[in-house]
Design goal:
The chain is mostly helical. It is 71% helix and 2% strand. Keywords: Coiled coil, Golgi apparatus.
């Protein structure tokens, strides 16, 4: 009976909630379904049953039903959670019943796929996960079951916790942090039997994702030792999916934590990691899919160590340098070269990640840079420098991503390494066997192989090799003036050597660019995606011209080059990226031009841009370039988290490459090579180009070819007059020059501002600075007239208000006059009445009476005096008011107001009553 009360009381509220949700998800039919009645019947037997076997049988049947029916899952979530949780608390001694309860929970949290219903339909499994993880006490109860002796209890508990993680990761992470020794209990499971250990490993992998506090506790509990112990037991890279889970857990711990990386280095060291990367030379058929995934996980660990931690974290660079040195001491470079360079039978994804790790290993590290420069690869007698082998990969691979990864090695090798750049540049020279593309390639020095690829378009039209070689050359000369000048001095034979002439390598690069442009036009229909050949060659020209006036002068030696670059920037036949990069090349020819020769100086280039492209269109090319290069950073793609769901796709690299190529119009190579660093470099360069061109158009040319005749002294002209005339001429020229400078500055500023993103119709804008000044003056006059009108309106309002006040005052005076007149009339009536009384008294007898006449005369005299005084005051007031009214009337007339109309009707309603009214009043008396 206790269980029955528990069942009815605890399950009531949860049942209402879940039934309402079930009605929302499944409709009314789900509530009355047969499965619901079965679930309720089984739960009643489990809760109220007294026979253990019957309770176990009901639990088994309930588990089978919940595992097969979504409706049963929902009904179980509505009614069964409190009952089975109570079983886990109160019936620990009945191991079989506890097993059944845990297995039922696992079934309730496992999604059931069905072809019926919409895809957006709420899954009962996710709803049940949310209900179970809502209370921390439930998680604590499950963790306590991990201490049970029964194997299946621990196994199903681990499975249940893992099922909870898939739907309620954040909530479970928070709950486990609140439970004392919660992480410790899970860590102990790593030392359990193999099946439970594997499940616990997967559980910890989920828990440590983006959970810094859990990561710290796990590391404190000695997880590094346990991880590598499991990897060693499983056979390193030859192990199964358990090795993959271990590496995923390891990468979760070190991905966003420099401190965890340091702890790994100081406690375990990098020897176990190196052991995973060891492979047998020549093991062509040993790369199974699982081994490939395991090696990718280990290389991902290496990559995380070589980046040093998240960007912006203090101590990141120091930690990165320490990791570079520690890994180099373990000879990791040999293993990476074997994976990425020598094992060409290895999967593409593995080779690419190994190459990227090589780049990160040597980046800004002098010792590792020297090691790579001296490293030899291959076996006797076919041994060659590692850099030559990596260059060969760049030139011969048919996979774009492998070219990008190998190119990344040279980018890292040359960054902040002027000695290495100079060393590579010094080897660039024509080779006697230059015509043989394959026969003597192994015996050629690095620079000769590179130069041969650059010239391959002349030999067999291989623009792909020319483009890739251009990318490598751009790394060699970047930010290194010595290397730029060294390569600039290379002279090549012309296509017609019989003439005995040579041409600089820079001129040949421009020729290759024109060939690529013509090929791009012919193949435009067959290749809808944007080609990367022209942009890569243009990037080489930009890097070469920046800060190198000799390169600018060499490029402008032939007017054909300038005209061709202008055509690239102006013609709409080319892609926006090509037009924008060509505009940057032209801007570099202006910005870094130190020539004084007419036709090749900065003013001549800027003038050509203005005449053939137009400054407005030219500056719009920068905006187009910025938009075409605005793509998500690709660097994060190489640090993508390796998990069970993404492992297979990451190992099959060619499939990913095809998908990326088809889903975006931009070629994937461009999004890799034109990284955020180069885009920022272009943005800064754009600002300098805009300012420089504006400055050029704000000043005139300094040289004057012919002296004006006014500067020569005339015959018979004395020196004083000559000097006076010269002074007048100079003043006139100065005035004209100042006006011209002002107009040019205004025009350039307007064009630069227009090019900065305002694409409005320029036909509506002033055509010159003088027009703008006139328009500005007219605008100011218009604003002044508007202000005067507003002032007059204000004054008019004030005058109208004053007139209204005077009008009201006049009405008041008229009213006072009327009151005075009424008082005088009343006084006259009183006199008449007194006269009548006097007459009556006289006729009445000899009764003495006062001298009425005398009193009347006295009263009348006093009244007249008072009336006269008041009347005089009123007349004075009326005179003053009349004067004001006249002045106001005159002012209103000036403003155009009709004074007679305004005064019409004033005083009509206050007129003095006429005589008829007075007679009527007397009759009334």
């Amino acid at each position: 009976m206790d269980r029955s009360i528990n069942f009815r009381g605890i399950a009531g509220s949860a049942g209402n909630i879940m039934q309402g949700m079930g009605k929302f998800v499944f409709g009314n039919e789900g509530l009355e379904s047969k499965e619901d009645s079965y679930v309720e019947r089984y739960l009643d037997r489990i809760s109220n049953g007294t026979i253990p076997d019957d309770r176990r049988s009901a639990m088994t049947e309930l588990q089978s039903l919940v595992a097969e029916s979504r409706s049963a899952q929902m009904s179980f979530g509505a009614m069964g959670f409190p009952i089975l949780l109570n079983v886990l608390k109160e019936d620990r001694e009945d191991v079989e019943l506890v097993r059944g309860a845990l297995e039922t929970f696992v079934s309730a949290l496992t999604p059931i796929e069905t072809s019926q219903g919409p895809k957006t339909e709420v899954q009962p499994a996710s709803v049940n996960s949310d209900l179970l993880s809502r209370e921390t006490e439930n998680i604590s109860l499950l963790l306590s079951l991990l201490s049970e002796e029964d194997f299946y209890v621990r196994y199903y508990t681990i499975q249940l916790l893992t099922a909870l993680l898939t739907n309620s990761l954040k909530r479970l992470q928070e709950a486990i942090l609140l439970i004392p020794r919660g992480i410790t209990v899970l860590m102990d499971m790593l030392m359990d039997r193999e099946v439970i250990r594997n499940e616990a490993l997967l559980l910890l992998t989920y828990l440590t994702r983006d959970a810094e506090e859990i990561q710290k506790i796990v590391v404190f509990e000695g997880v590094f030792e346990k991880i590598f112990s499991i990897i060693r037991e499983e056979g390193y890279s030859d192990g199964g999916v358990v090795v993959q889970d271990c590496l995923e857990l390891l990468n979760n711990l070190i991905r966003h934590s420099s401190s965890n990386q340091m702890l790994l280095k100081e406690t375990i060291g990098f020897d176990p990691l190196i052991s995973i990367l060891k492979i047998r030379r020549g093991s062509a058929f040993n790369f199974t899919q699982q081994k490939t995934v395991n090696l990718l996980g280990a290389l991902n660990t290496v990559e995380l160590l070589l980046t040093g931690g998240p960007s912006g974290e203090s101590g990141k660079d120091a930690n990165k340098n320490a990791n570079q040195a520690a890994l180099a001491q373990k000879n990791i470079l040999d293993h990476l070269l074997l994976l990425g360079v020598e094992s060409q039978w290895a999967p593409v994804a593995l080779r690419c990640m190994a190459l990227r790790c090589i780049g990160n290993l040597v980046l800004r590290n002098p010792q590792n840079l020297d090691s790579l420069a001296k490293k030899q690869v291959g076996e006797e007698p076919h041994v060659q420098p590692a850099l030559n082998a990596i260059l060969s990969i760049i030139l011969r691979t048919s996979i774009a991503q492998e070219f990008v990864a190998a190119d990344y090695v040279f980018r890292c090798f040359c960054e902040k390494n002027p000695n290495g750049q100079a060393l590579l540049a010094s080897t660039i020279a024509p080779h006697p066997n230059q015509g043989d593309m394959h026969g003597a390639a192994a015996d050629m020095p690095f620079g000769s192989i590179l130069l041969q690829a650059l010239l391959s378009s002349d030999v067999n039209g291989d623009m792909e090799a020319c483009c890739r070689a251009s990318s490598v050359l751009s790394h060699i000369i970047k930010d290194n003036l010595q290397s730029k000048d060294r390569v600039l001095q290379i002279q090549l034979e012309t296509p017609t050597p019989s003439l005995g002439r040579t041409e600089p390598l820079l001129h040949r690069i421009v020729t290759c660019l024109s060939i690529a442009a013509s090929d791009g036009e012919n193949d435009q229909s067959s290749h809808p995606e944007e080609s990367y050949i022209q942009p890569v060659i243009l990037r080489l020209l930009i890097i070469w011209l920046v800060d190198c006036s000799n390169a600018v002068n060499c490029l402008l030696e032939s007017a054909v080059h300038l005209n061709y670059i202008i055509e690239l920037a102006s013609s709409k036949r080319y892609a926006a990226c090509v037009r924008g990069l060509a505009a940057v090349v032209l801007g570099a020819c202006v910005l870094y031009n130190a020539s004084r020769e007419k036709g090749r100086d900065a003013f001549a280039v800027a003038d050509a841009i203005s005449q053939k492209i137009g400054l407005t269109t030219y500056f719009l090319r920068f905006d187009e370039l910025r938009k075409s290069l605005a793509h998500p950073s690709s660097e994060l793609q190489h640090r993508k988290e390796l998990s069970r769901s993404s492992a297979n796709s990451m190992s099959d690299f060619q499939e990913i490459e095809e998908d990326e190529t088809n889903k975006d119009d931009q070629h994937p190579v461009l999004s890799e090579i034109f990284d955020s660093q180069f885009v920022n470099f272009l943005s800064k360069l754009e600002v300098d180009i805009r300012e420089n061109i504006m400055d050029i158009f704000s000043r005139t040319k300094t040289a004057t070819a012919v002296l004006p005749a006014e500067l020569e002294q005339k015959n018979g002209e004395v020196d004083g007059e000559y000097i006076k005339r010269l002074k007048s001429f100079v003043e006139k020229q100065c005035n004209e020059m100042q006006e011209l400078l002002a107009r040019n500055a205004m025009l350039a500023e307007d064009l630069v501002r227009t090019g900065g993103g305002n694409t409005a119709d320029t036909s509506q804008k002033p055509s010159s600075g003088r027009d703008r000044v006139q328009i500005e003056a007219l605008r100011q006059e218009l604003e002044g007239a508007k202000r005067q009108i507003e002032a007059l309106k204000t004054e008019k309002s004030q005058i109208e208000a004053e007139a209204n006040n005077q009008r009201n005052l006049a009405v008041k005076v008229e009213s006072d006059l009327k009151s005075l007149s009424d008082a005088y009339n009343s006084l006259e009536q009183a006199n008449y009445r007194l006269d009548a009384e006097v007459k009556t008294l006289r006729q009445g007898g000899s009764v003495p009476y006062p001298d009425v006449e005398a009193i009347k005369a006295q009263a009348k005299e006093e009244a007249e005096k008072d009336s006269e005084a008041e009347l005089n005051d009123l007349l004075v007031c009326l005179g003053q008011e009349q004067s004001k009214v006249e002045k106001l009337s005159a002012r209103l007339a000036e403003l155009g107001e009709d004074v007679d109309t305004l005064l019409q009707g004033i005083g009509d309603d206050t007129a003095i009553p006429d005589d008829d009214d007075e007679d009527e009043d007397e009759d009334d008396e």
